[in-house]
Amino acid sequence: MFGKDPIVNLENFQEQRVYFGFFLGFNSFDYKIDYKTAGPDIETKKTTGFNVGIVGDLRLQQYINLRFEPGLYYSKRDLRYPGFENQVDALREVNSTYIHFPLLVKLSSLRAGNIRPYVLGGLSATLNLSSNQKAQDDNKEQNFRVKSWTTNYELGLGIDIFSEYFIFSPSIRGVFGLGDELVRDKDPNSPWTSNIESIKNRAILINFTFH
Q: What highest taxon heads this organism's lineage (predicted)?
């Protein structure tokens, strides 16, 4: 695969107009929090979640592809608020199940033997099935709420590795939320939401794609 004169695998595979695949992977979701006034920051504890989905790839030009990657993403974050003595009031566990819809442009380099690096970027919409947006209970009842739909931009890079029977494509990508997704508490002076200007998603995705 990496020798001076390797056997070229799947030489014409990516000449197809449309092809499909699937991915498995990991994620680490965070929040970018902006405040109205300076003070102690809310601490975010991240954990590693998992991803699974399908890939549809449309060849626009020899080195340019349009890629659609709908997937299911599970993540968990703990928000620890300063200034509370009571552990119940200080901690908010945010479990998120996302259906993620990214539309990406993939720019590939020249193929070198059986490897082909690429970069990609684009926009995405995300549906949070665990958002609690319509719930009547808020943080006073230990219920942290965010909006169901968010939009993002994404940037990443990866490499296509051509084996004899399939293409293996590991990639890493950053996801950056474009809009505020926090649902404020009913009390305008709420200690959990009153000083927050905006909360936006941030995530690192590591995917392993198979075509």
A: Bacteria
